[in-house]
Amino acid sequence: MNARQIIGIEPQLFIQVIAGAAEIEAPIRGYAKESWDYLREFHPQMAYFVGGDFDAEQGVPVIGIWEKEERQHTPVMRKLYQQLTGEKLQPKPNAVAGYQPGANSADAVYQHLCSRISTEWSAIAVYLWLMAHSTGELQLAIAQLLQDEINHLAKFWGFSRWAFGSSAIEHLKASMGDIVGLVKHHKRDRTNGDEILSIAQLASQLPRAVELGFAFARVMVRIHTWDAELSQSFLKHLFGPALSGAKQ
Fold first, then answer.
1. Which residues of 110-120 are buried (b: 16+ CB within 10 A; e: fewer)?
2. What angle do CA 220, 216, 147 make, to 5 degrees?
3. Is the Cβ–Cβ distance between 64 and 51 less than 8 Å?
4. Rounded to 5 degrees, what are φ and ψ at 6?
5. How far apart are CA 225 and CA 230, in angstroms?
6. 115 touches 178 (CB < 8 A)
């Protein structure tokens, strides 16, 4: 695996995106705890899937499936970075907002799920874009991460549809707002955030922005198609009877 497997794009930009992705993926324990706090009373089984079982000392005696899969991503990205540059990456972990309880607990859960959906949506689009500009072993390594993100997006999306009954359009609107917030956050928080975002704004990089926008759109077209096939009876089979406390 080497930089010659990067195709159709400046290797430096590709490597910067890899570094940024590693930093965003890094604090997976914090992400898992955040979701667990939102979901533990709302739906204990989903909380267990995401974050396992946190004890009173904030430890994790049992790791959730979601966390177990996601925690593999940063090491993969660090390895890719080292093989592409010959240098070790020391990622600056992303800041995690943590549990922010609101007056309406169901609304807080809904907003958190939309945030998770936007994060998974963004990861899928970026990984697809990276795969389009790579080949060989490099592309295969990114494809393994992509499979996890697709699986996780489907689960969060389906769970939110079951719990809140929101239309796909409502989900898209809420998630788009979160994505705008993510861009601002990562510009401030990422080691190379300014460089990546400023490069994307250059006229010479406009085709890259169009490519990434196309990837975002194609992911949601596919999700929208899949969403139309979801039935309440199937969601009930997966997650149980509808919750009376959730907004519909």
1. bbbbbbbbbbb
2. 75
3. yes
4. -90, 125
5. 9
6. yes
pLDDT at 29: 86
Tokens of 176: 């788009």
Bridge partners (DSSP) of residue 134 are: 6
Question: Which residues of the chain are modeled with pLDDT < 50?
Answer: 180, 183-188, 190, 193-204, 245, 248
For the chain, the structural domain boundaries read 3-238
CATH architecture of 3-238: Up-down Bundle (1.20)
> Rounded to an integer, what is the distance from CA 68 to the centroid of its chain?
14
- On whether the pTM is more than 0.90, the answer is no
Whole-angstrom Cα distance, residue 202 to residue 197? 9
- Alpha carbon 107 to its chain centroid, in Å, reads 21
